[in-house]
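Encode chain A's predicted structure.
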Amino acid sequence: MSHAVRVPSLKIIQIFNRYLQPGGEEKSVARIAEDLESGGHSVARIWRESAEWQGPDGVSRLRQPFLMWRNPAVLASIRERQVSVRADVWVLHNVVPVISLGIYSLARELGVPVVQWLHNYRPVSPSGTMFAGTTPLSPGDKWIGVKESMAGTWNGRIATAILAYYYRRLRRNGDFASVRAWVAVSEEMRRIFAKAGWYADRLHALRHSWHSQPAPAANRDDGYFLFLGRMVESKGVRFLIDLWRTPELRQVKLVMAGDGPLVPELRSQSPPAVEWVGHVEGDVKRNLKAGCRAILFPSTWAEPLSTVAYEAYEMNKPILASQMGGMPEVIQSGTTGLLLPPGNISVWREAICSLTPEQSAAWGRAGRGWLLENASPQAWLAGFHRILGTILGSGKS
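Encoded structure for chain A:
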């Protein structure tokens, strides 16, 4: 039996470097801060922008690698905030490039315990994907950094090599000693980090929370299938377009919602049944989810845990997803959706063609029930308090 962990009200500094393009990680970071505040903690947000380095007034490409290692101005501002707030713990997310990797040595110097959220496979994998080009890498491979650098998986070969070197240097210097808990967003992700030899005694798993909104008053099924996400290779969008070229899906509508580098290429090649709507938010996004038969998530990499399943469940919709990464932990195949072999056109085609409105409705209702029981802010906060208990020495009640 699990026990509640008594944690006093804490002062927390949350540190996050936003990406150039918004995505699910940014929303997860925001929910984490909100959930901590709802649990009685004080959260000071230090969010910086990768966009700060862009444009004519940005940082030159020659200076960027040096500032990515240590950005004196940003670190000085964080030091000042710590002196002012006297935070009990820092919660870190992405910190490159603007905040800089010097954040770990600063935390160590100041004696502040760090909780590092693992939203992707960094620092084990410089790109965070565990891929060298299109080749998946094993977490036990000691040459991951070299292979990714040769493939240029993160902003080209030189940038990838520099980042890989910096991560090795941090570990060699002992700067990661400031991180008292590494928090993966799925058990599978935690196992991958453990296989990579990454501080197994400090590894934890805690799935995302979800702030569920009321379900639609009436079930709607307009017969189309929906993809939500970034248009990049790892999300399986090229596979979807190839899938929709099969004759059986000629009369089935697919809505592609999202933006990314593959849009111009794939949009020009897609069959007539595919509709491209770009990045969507708010009521437009909610309406698209409300009318679909199912959300599709054909990822070709071991996605740590995508909240697109939560988005489907919230609207009483099932999800059809690749059976890899953390997705089997949130999808009960045959009950809340289907887990399918990645890249298998015949299996995916059969699953899509055979999904009836009645089956979709039943799986969607089961998915919403799972979401409310397993991903509530209260359940997430209890899990986080258990992690805090391991690093702050809190007692159990």
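Residues 316 and 364 are 4 Å apart (CA to CA).
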